[in-house]
Design goal:
With 134 residues, this protein is an alpha+beta fold. It contains 3 helices and 9 strands. It binds ligand LZKTLF4L and cobalt (II) ion. Its EC number is 5.1.99.1.
C-alpha cells in the first residue's frame, strides 16, 4: 500500500528563520512560503534528491500544530508523508483495521494539490502519518 516517502515535516516557530537556516547554512533549495489557511499552516518545501522536507508554521487561530509547538517550543519532527496509489482504498483498509483517520475521514487537498489524509499518532507509535494520493 505505501509508496515513496513524499516528505518529512518539521514544525517550526519561525518559518523565515528555518528557511534561512536550510538555505544558507545547509545550502538547500527552499520553495517560497505557501499559506494554507484551510490547514492552519504556512509551509515551504526543501528540495532533496530523494524526498522533500516540509517546514511548517502555524497560520491563524486554531492551527492544528499550535499545541505541538507549545509542547516543543524550538520545533520538532511533526509528521511523515507516504504516497499511496489509492487514498480511498487505503483509508477504508485502515479504518477496517481500527486505525483513526483524522478530521471527518474525507481526504482534503494538500500543499501539492493532491488528496491527503492524516492518521492519529497514537495509532502509529507516536508518529503522525500523512497519506498523499500519487
Ligand atoms: C495538508 C497540508 C500539508 C501538506 O503536507 O500538504 C500538511 O502536512 S499540513 C500539517 C498540519 N496539519 C495537521 O497536522 C493535521 C493533522 N493533525 C491534527 O489533526 C492534530 O495535530 C492532532 C490531532 C494530530 C494533534 O492535535 P493536538 O496536538 O491539538 O491534540 P492533542 O494535544 O490531543 O494530541 C493528542 C496526542 O497526540 C500527540 N501528538 C500531537 N501531535 C503529534 C505529532 N505531530 N506527532 C506525534 N504525536 C503528536 C500529543 O502529544 C498527544 O499525546 P499525549 O500523550 O496524549 O499528550
Ligand atoms: Co505534510
Amino acid at each position: 500500500m505505501l509508496g515513496r516517502v513524499n516528505h518529512v515535516a518539521i514544525a517550526v516557530p519561525d518559518l523565515a528563520a528555518a528557511t534561512a537556516a536550510y538555505r544558507d547554512q545547509l545550502g538547500a533549495s527552499v520553495s517560497q512560503p505557501q499559506p494554507l489557511p484551510e490547514h492552519g499552516v504556512t509551509v515551504v518545501f526543501v528540495g532533496l534528491p530523494n524526498a522533500k522536507v516540509e517546514l511548517l508554521e502555524p497560520l491563524g487561530e486554531g492551527s492544528p500544530i499550535a499545541a505541538f509547538l507549545t509542547k516543543n517550543p524550538d520545533g520538532g519532527m511533526h509528521h511523515i508523508c507516504y504516497e499511496v496509489d489509492d487514498i480511498l482504498a487505503a483509508r477504508d483498509h485502515l479504518v477496517a483495521s481500527g486505525a483513526r483517520v483524522l478530521g471527518n475521514g474525507e481526504p482534503k487537498i494538500g500543499a501539492h494539490g493532491k488528496s491527503v489524509l492524516f492518521l492519529h499518532p497514537k495509532d502509529f507509535f507516536g508518529t503522525l502519518i500523512e497519506l498523499e494520493q500519487l
